[in-house]
Specification:
By secondary structure, this protein is mainly beta. The chain is built from one helix and 35 strands. The strands form seven sheets. Strands 2, 4, 5, 8, 9 and 10 form a six-stranded mixed β-sheet that branches. Strands 13, 14, 15, 17, 18 and 19 form a six-stranded antiparallel β-sheet that branches. The longest helix is centred in the first third of the chain and has 16 residues, at about 1-15. The protein is rod-shaped, with a radius of gyration of 42 Å. The termini are far apart.
Amino acid sequence: MKKSIVLFFASLFFSFSYSQIWVSPITSGRPINTVYLGDKLSNEWYFQFEIGQSAWNKSEVGIGQNADGTTDWNWADAEYYADGAGSNKKVQRNIGDFQFTSTGNWYVVGRARAAETDAWAYTDEGDWTDETTLTVSDTEKACPYFNVLVLNGPTSPSATVYSKYQIDLNWTKSNDKDVMIVMRKTSSSASDSPVQGTSYNVGSVLGTGRVVYKGSSTSASIAGLDANTSYTFIFYSENNNYYSEENVTAAAKTLSEEWFNDYITLNETKYALKGSGLSLDEVNLGTISSLIINSASLQYSDITTAVAPRTGSAYYYAIQENGGSNVVNDVENILTQTSLGDYTYEGSTSTPTANLISSLTAGKSYILHVWAKSWNGEDGGDLWLTNNGNNYKVSFVKSVSTGINEPDSSLKLSGENGKITAYFEGTAKVELYSATGQLIRSVKVTNVFSEAVKTGIYLLRINGTTHKVIVK
């Protein structure tokens, strides 16, 4: 009889020790909260549940998305923090600072087991349960979860040109998230998108683009840009190194250089003050009997969009004796201004001057000075084109003879038989231009230069002295 009693109590103890554990959630919510991609929980955020006995093998809290409860889930110990009813115990895990790295539902659940070999009991029923199958769903059972939304991009983006080197940006933040802006030249291919979870700083390169702003403001001024260039700006909401994926852009074009494509025509030849072609800087016309400014076409830009626009322009000239004082004082020639768009303008005239050297002394050397100005009618609003303060200088000798060129006795020019030929002594730099100032050939040769061309008028510059050649 005594032996039977011992066996009964041993059997009862064995059955109690290995029965399935019961658990019940304390933390609940479907959803617990709605957050955004990249959000982090606060430093201390506890998920709590209760265990229906005073001792057990292990208790954990996990957070994840996969339905199997294992793949990419984050599990860690849940520690005792208070007694429950009777012999029950309450446990918790601090999942503070956890970051939501993808959108959708993130499920949080507790689990416990009485012995190491036991199956886990999960707190996904919403009440006391010994259920050992985890159900991850927002429609079945009661597993708590966070709803993680996509990051919306900033709204109302704008890009406004300020100067030839600066564009100002404005935007409205979405859900009060920080903003990162990537800039590329509009002519370039699309820049790379930021990689989720990757940190970028101002200056970081993303393909053809680079980060030009990162922060919490709603405006920025982007400086150090190229003049007369279109830029595209891509706006991203940024949240702890996670980014919106909407295509939110704005574009603007910087102002042009203050002066560009600026030309005057001396006699029949077009010269560039600023622009391509035959430069007016340090031109030597040789010995001439006539000097007429036949036309002018000057193109220029506003300084910034913050000041009044250009309202007019003019070119100026004066003539000095070589090494002496003015013999023709400053003369202003007002131009007719038209708008070219994009804050640019053209001032032009096709009215020729009189012969500028008719009153000068034959046989003397002179220098023609040319410069220009645009204005907007405000104090300090003048823009000068002065070749860095030196003016554009054209040297010449007045002669009573006709023609644009008076070669010295050592120089022989020919334009016969569809060919320009020049004979001279020694080595010379020779530049051949069309009558419109387009460079045809530039070469350094000794004693002779020859070039086959079509019939017409050409300009041949030899060691800085320009001669007109008619090819028949």
